[in-house]
Structure formats: structure tokens, C-alpha cells
Design a protein that fits this description.
101 residues, alpha+beta, 2 domains, 3-stranded mixed β-sheet, 6 helices, elongated
Length: 101
């Protein structure tokens, strides 16, 4: 027996999920849940200064504009550079994308 929820309810449920890893798991459960969870799973994009993996993430984002459309904030973590310069605490630069109605 398949239970079908209205999409706006699924959207509201996904909006309440705090852990992005949970949103990734929700996306894998079904096509409908993937559509509902995607805007929330990719609203914050983390980029690290020193890893090739982060560079690949940025490249993949630009290659998939339908995913990039959901990004609302980019967090650039330059921890490695700041720590080498002798700062006491790691610092991040936070960019917030304009919300397009």
C-alpha cells in the first residue's frame, strides 16, 4: 500500500529537517521526495580552501544549473590559510545569494 502525501506537505516536512545528510537520504528514497528535498539540501554550499574535493564540488555545481538554482549561501572556509598565518581562530567568509522571487 502506497501512501501519497500532497507535495506541499512533503515540502514543509523537508523544510524542518536540520541535518543536510538527512536531506540527502530523503532525496534517495523516491523521485517525489527527491524533488521535495532538493531545494533544502543544496541551499548552503560549503567550499574548503585546500581540498581538491571542494574544487570538484564547485565544478559539479556549475555543470548542473538546476541544482545551482537552489544555492542561497556559499560558505568559504579558509581555515588552512588562516592557521598558517598565525591567527588564533579559523575564519570563514560567508556569501548570501540574493533571493529571487
Amino acid at each position: 500500500m502506497v501512501i501519497r502525501f500532497p507535495f506541499d506537505i512533503l515540502h514543509t516536512i523537508c523544510e524542518e529537517v536540520d541535518d543536510v545528510r538527512d536531506l540527502y537520504h530523503i532525496r534517495m528514497a523516491s523521485r517525489t521526495l527527491c524533488v521535495a528535498a532538493t531545494p533544502f539540501a543544496f541551499r548552503v554550499f560549503d567550499v574548503s580552501n585546500s581540498t581538491e574535493k571542494s574544487a570538484q564540488k564547485v565544478e559539479q555545481l556549475f555543470d548542473t544549473p538546476h541544482m545551482a538554482a537552489h544555492v542561497r549561501a556559499v560558505i568559504y572556509d579558509d581555515t588552512d590559510v588562516v592557521m598558517k598565518e598565525g591567527a588564533l581562530e579559523p575564519q570563514c567568509v560567508f556569501f548570501r545569494a540574493p533571493v529571487i522571487p
